[in-house]
Write a structure and sequence with these properties.
The longest helix is centred in the last third of the chain and has 16 residues. Helices cover about 40% and strands about 20% of the residues. The relative contact order is 0.16. The strands form two sheets. The chain has a five-stranded mixed sheet. It has a four-stranded parallel sheet with strand order 2-1-8-9. The protein is of the alpha/beta class. α2 runs parallel beside α3 and α6 packs across α8. β4, α2 and β5 form a beta-alpha-beta unit.
Length: about 260
């Protein structure tokens, strides 16, 4: 009996344990993973204020009433730099961020039921009027969070802990999907969409890649990611209610499987 070919599914997570976990999950779902990192982390460096060339890494401020961490990467960078939240109320967007805080020895006071900027704004909206809120994240954080907190009456300060850049070797998945050799793609942020399209353009296959995605199953975490993809002409098939990679992968593989076996 001839064995059915496995679904080829692209994952765009950074090349660390997140990508390893994505590959392991996709394999457990019976898929053939195509790991193609579209994000790499560049820690932000503090300005050379005193001219000695060694002012260390950037850390979240410690003089606020609330501090918001939005990613595992941000937590790890803050912890490595010896950051101490003191008496601040610590807020984490998502379980992975909360787990990273616990692993680093920090307490976590607030995790919104909806793992998103909108969810945290809704959670804090009745409590932060007149409060100082420190938001510590990447340079591509959504204005939904900062604007929403300001609209709720908070005094918001944002600290960029790291920058997200595209690895120069990225783009294998763009070539595959342009040739019709990819069954599904899993976008985890608007920036992964943008970097995928940039990688496709660098390889001269941008339009062919978009056409290929429209013949495949496309999954996106969150409405902003969906909007970015659709604004670029990419039809999105799956947006899980739970904004995490496991839900995204499971739903996208399930959505791709029927057409795969026709």
């Amino acid at each position: 009996m001839r064995e059915e070919p496995r679904l080829r599914v692209a994952a765009f997570r950074p090349a660390d344990d997140r990508l390893d976990d994505a590959v392991e999950l996709l394999e457990s779902l019976g898929a053939d993973p195509v790991p193609d990192p579209m994000l790499a982390v560049e820690p932000a460096a503090a300005g050379d204020i005193d001219g000695d060339g060694d002012d260390g890494p950037v850390t979240p401020r410690t003089d606020a009433d609330y501090v918001v961490l939005t990613s595992k990467t941000g937590v790890e960078l803050a912890a490595e730099a010896g950051w101490d939240p003191g008496e601040m109320t610590v807020c984490a967007i998502g379980e992975s961020t909360a787990e990273a805080l616990h692993e680093a020895g920090y307490g976590v006071d607030i995790i919104p039921a909806e793992y998103s900027s909108t969810g945290l704004v809704e959670t804090l909206s009745g409590a932060v009027a007149g409060a100082r809120v420190e938001v510590a994240r990447s340079d591509h954080g959504s204005a939904v969070l900062t604007d929403g907190l300001e609209n709720a009456g908070a005094y918001v300060h944002e600290t960029v802990l790291y920058r997200l850049v595209r690895p120069p070797e990225s783009g294998e998945s763009a070539d595959l999907v342009a040739d019709g050799d990819l069954d599904a793609a899993l976008f985890t942020s608007s920036l992964t969409v943008q970097h995928f399209l940039d990688a496709a353009a660098d390889r001269g296959v941008r339009e062919a890649a978009i056409d290929g995605l429209n013949g495949a199953t496309v999954g996106a975490i969150g409405e902003p990611t969906r909007e970015t993809a659709e604004n670029a002409g990419i039809s999105v098939d799956v947006v899980p209610d739970q904004a995490d990679f496991e839900a995204l992968a499971c739903e996208a593989v399930e959505a791709a499987a029927p057409s795969h076996h026709e």
